[in-house]
């Protein structure tokens, strides 16, 4: 291809075939340069003995390529100016490496790896050949008569230690002659965010006593509570008093009748031990406040203590 002074075009990338053709064209022009004119001493003119590359200058992208030629009496001398290519676009940064899978291959197969790029992460899929099956090991010994060693029976977890969230998990194992004993070191999870406020609970209407059970003397009083969606329900267990001693014999009293006054007096006197318990005299809000519920529980405790004998 003959030399073309218009190549390479401005703004184009350098093409190896095109530059080779241009240089070959220049060489062809050099080869056709005739010998110089005869010298003053009557000798033949000086011929071209070689070509010398004086320099190659890098120009800005879009500048026209340059080529200058001079002759020093023996050599043709060249100086080129070649524009560099345009800057490439910024590459997408790699943020992480992800292993998508590891496949086990047959013994002797070559290991493989496949890679892909999803725009942010380099993804790997490995194929790793397993080792050849090992030969049968020698019979173990218990150290006495050369017979079989002690059998392995079970696994025992001696402890689980909690590590910080970023610590690596680990396990320590030991064989005590009968069982494999393990201690696990596991990192705890990161502390989660507080959950949102739950929905409004159902209103508290009133308190109901479902049952009162008599317990043996000396037993602790009990109370069980439940909420059925509207009412707080109570089940009490109240210990009875100790059996009193038999009274001594006395003189026979004269028979008589019990009057209404005597009966009322006897009945009124049986509840004196609870008279000190004051009434709540309170109105429960809907829904009830924590303080109101605590006041009800405290009053029940006071009543239980007063009824004990």
Considering DSSP H and I runs of 4 or more, what fraction of the residues is helical? 10-25%
Q: Tell me what portion of residues adopts beta-strand conformation.
A: 25-35%
| Uncertain parts | 37-45
Described by strand count, sense and barrel closure, the largest sheet is:
3 strands, mixed
Verbal overview:
- This protein is α/β, with parallel strands linked by helices.
- Among the domains are: 1-33 and 47-86, no CATH class; 96-126, no CATH class; 154-187, no CATH class; 203-241 and 278-309, no CATH class.
- Helices cover 14% and strands 32% of the residues.
- The chain contains three helices and twelve strands.
- The strands form four sheets. Strands 1-3-2 form a three-stranded mixed beta sheet, with no helix packed on it.
- The termini are far apart.
- Residues 37-45 have low confidence and may be disordered.
